[in-house]
Automatic annotation (TrEMBL):
PROSITE patterns, per database record: AA_TRANSFER_CLASS_4
Assembly with partners or alone: Homodimer.
Essential cofactor(s): pyridoxal 5'-phosphate
Protein family membership: Belongs to the class-IV pyridoxal-phosphate-dependent aminotransferase family.
Catalyzed reactions per annotation: L-isoleucine + 2-oxoglutarate = (S)-3-methyl-2-oxopentanoate + L-glutamate; L-leucine + 2-oxoglutarate = 4-methyl-2-oxopentanoate + L-glutamate; L-valine + 2-oxoglutarate = 3-methyl-2-oxobutanoate + L-glutamate
Species of origin: Insulibacter thermoxylanivorax
Pathway: Amino-acid biosynthesis; L-valine biosynthesis; L-valine from pyruvate: step 4/4; Amino-acid biosynthesis; L-isoleucine biosynthesis; L-isoleucine from 2-oxobutanoate: step 4/4; Amino-acid biosynthesis; L-leucine biosynthesis; L-leucine from 3-methyl-2-oxobutanoate: step 4/4
Cellular compartments per GO CC: cytosol
Function per UniProt: Acts on leucine, isoleucine and valine.
Protein name per its UniProtKB record: Branched-chain-amino-acid aminotransferase
Alphabetical keyword list: Amino-acid biosynthesis, Aminotransferase, Branched-chain amino acid biosynthesis, Pyridoxal phosphate, Transferase
This protein's record includes keyword Signal: no
Highest taxon of the lineage: Bacteria
Amino acid sequence: MSQQQWIYLNGEFVTKENAKISVYDHGFLYGDGIFEGIRIYNGNIFKCKEHLDRLYDSAKSISLEIPLTYDEMQEALVETIRRNGLRDGYIRLVVSRGPGNLGLDPRRCERANVVIIVEQLALYPEEAYKNGLVIVSVSTRRNLPDALNPKIKSLNYLNNVLAKIQSNLVGAGEALMLNSQGYVVECTGDNIFIIKNGVIYTPPTYLGALEGITRNTIIEIARKEGYTVKEEPFSLHDVYVADEVFLTGTAAECIAVREVDSRIIGEGKAGPITTHLLEEFRKIVEIDGVKVNYD
Ligand code: PMP
C-alpha cells in the first residue's frame, strides 16, 4: 500500500483528514444507508459481483438510489484499490442516504453519499485459525426479520453492537445471537456453522441472519467436497454438543470456535472438516473475482 491513503468520496479521491461528510447525513442521523465489506487477495477483488449484487439489492429494497451504475461502482472500487496500491486488504463501501434535514423523511435527502475506504487487514492471527475462538451466547436477540430484513446489509448495526458489548464484558471473541424463538442465528459480524456426525448445518437466513457471501461460498465448497450441508434451525444445545463449530465472514474467513459458553467443542481446537474447508476456501480467494490491473 502506498504511503498516502486515498479515500473515494463521491467521485473524488481525498486524504483521510479530508474525508468528511455532513452531520445532516441520514446515515449518521438514522443509520439510513447500506454497506459492504469486501476482501482483496493478491490483487483479486474476491466475489466482487456477489458483493455488488447484494449492495444494489439492499439499495433497491430501501428505495435508495445509488448515484453510480453497477459498472461505475466496480470501476470506482478498482480505481480506489489501484490508487492505494493495495494488493491484500479490506474494502469498506458505504452508501448513505445523504444529507437531509433533521426529520427522517428520506425525500429531503437529495443525493446519496458514496464512500470507499481500503485498508490493510489482519482480523485474527494465524494461530486463531488453528486454536479456535472462544464465544458466548448473549441475551440481545437478533433483529426480527419481519421488522428489518437481514438480507438488507444496512448501516443499522445497533443490535449487533449491543451483542458485542455483552461479549466484551466477559472477554469473549464473539457474541452468538439467537432470535426471539431461541434459535441460533449468527454472530455480530459472522455466520455460524456446526458439524455433527459429518453433516454441516447452518441456520436458514429467514431466522434473521445475513446471507453472508462467505457463508454461501463455504456451502458451495462443502457440497463440492462431498459433504452434506443442511440449512435448518438449531438451538444452543446443538451448538454445545457439535463436533465442530466455525464462523464465516469476509473479515474472519472461516474460523474455528473452540469454546461456546464454557463448553469445549470437539477437541478444543480447529476440527478436521473446518480445517479442510478453510484450505479449500483459501485456494479460490485469489481466483474468484475481479482482477485489478496496477499498471
Ligand atoms: N452476519 C453479519 C451480521 C455481518 O455483518 C457479516 C459481515 N458482513 C456476516 C454475517 C458475514 O457476511 P459476509 O460473509 O458476506 O461477510
